[in-house]
TrEMBL record:
Pfam families in the cross-refs: NAD_binding_1
Highest taxon, organism lineage: Bacteria
Domain Oxidoreductase FAD/NAD(P)-binding stretches: 4-51
UniProt-recorded name of the protein: Oxidoreductase
GO molecular function, one term: oxidoreductase activity
């Protein structure tokens, strides 16, 4: 499963990710690609570290 989001676009994808992670074997892994103008603009910084 590939999830792509940028800046605040990651906010609605967070709930999708949290739902998918409970059944991760079904999706053969999850890849999240995200970006922002600068590191300061990233949301969920701590959670992104936990998810990796």
């Amino acid at each position: 499963m590939l999830i792509v989001g940028g800046g605040v676009g990651l906010a609605p994808l967070r709930s999708l990710f949290l739902t998918l992670v409970h059944d991760i074997e079904r999706y053969n892994g999850i890849t999240v690609c995200f970006g922002a103008r600068s590191p300061e603009d990233l949301i969920y910084k701590e959670q992104l570290k936990e998810w990796s």
